[in-house]
Amino acid sequence: MKSRIPPNSSVEELVELFVAIALDQEEANIDFDSRRFNKLYGQMDEARKRLKAMPGDKRSALVPLLQHPNLEVRLRAAKSTLAVAPEAARATLEALRKITHTPQASDAGMCLRALDQGICKPT
Question: Which residues form a coiled coil (predicted)?
């Protein structure tokens, strides 16, 4: 899967791609397609790194996604904004953890545990 992130993408384009990638990741999870999910993860990581490298660390542009209607988008945005909006990101993870029987709840719970144990240190 080739990267869909063109060089010199704007903040708005990167946020749109972030959402699209998160939605594709959700579909890959539903299909139990870990190979596709992992490739998509690499693309999301690239988008996140590009936002971080922009002057002023533009990962803050992902904060509105903490209210996105899709749980996967909210989860990915929360994990991606822990360093730039820790309270809002953590609150989103805690809310997701309370939604039972979803992969996002499990993932949010594991992320919170890693944060609390000092295993994960957002940068």
Answer: none
